[in-house]
Amino acid sequence: MDVLEAIYSRRSIRTFTADTVSRNHILEVLKAGSWAPSGLNNQPWRFVVVSDPQLRAELAKLTRYRHVLEGAPVAIAVFCDRAAMYNDVKDHQGIGACLQNMLLAAHALGLGAVWLGEILKNASRVRELLELPEGEELMAVVALGHPADRDQRSSRKNLEDLILKEL
């Protein structure tokens, strides 16, 4: 899939079929995330793959988008390893690039995914549920699976409304 086509055609998928996602596809999504740019190439992202239905159900209780995580066969919690960081803003931007790579990879593989950020209000509870040390900072949870449908629509503001100046 052409990169621009992937960017323009990717949509957030919130409903999934019951089909499992192969481990190879999960690893490919993680690998794409790991190839995001990071300052000093510090690669501060860390992943927890949650395929266990009971654990996913517990994770789902920590967000108002519970139905999305309950319906997805896989949830990937994305953390920033504070020990690997050198600048909060720069490293958090890198995690954003990591997440975008993951979403684009899922799309290119014929999967669907959505970046869930609202769960951050319960970041410490997620970290405790997944039995991680305090140095791991939750950045998002990605729900991943085979899309139940692909009829999502979206629009964007006109570029003229976004460009502040051209000098």
Write up this protein.
The protein has 167 residues and is an alpha+beta fold. The protein has a single domain, classed as NADH Oxidase (3-Layer(aba) Sandwich). It contains 7 helices and 4 strands; from the N terminus they run ααβααβαβαβα. The longest helix has 21 residues, at 88-108. The mean pLDDT is 96.
Quick recap:
The protein is of the alpha+beta class. Helix content is 39%, strand content 17%. It has 7 helices and 4 strands, in the order ααβααβαβαβα.
Strand content: 15-25%
Report the total helices: 7
Uncertain residue segments? none
- Under CATH at level 1, the class stands as Alpha Beta
Question: Which structural traits does this protein have?
Answer:
167 residues; four-stranded antiparallel sheet; alpha+beta; globular; NADH Oxidase; single chain
Topology record:
Elements: H1 3-9, H2 23-34, E1 45-50, H3 53-60, H4 66-71, E2 74-81, H5 88-108, E3 112-116, H6 123-129, E4 136-145, H7 159-162
Helix pairs in contact: 2-5
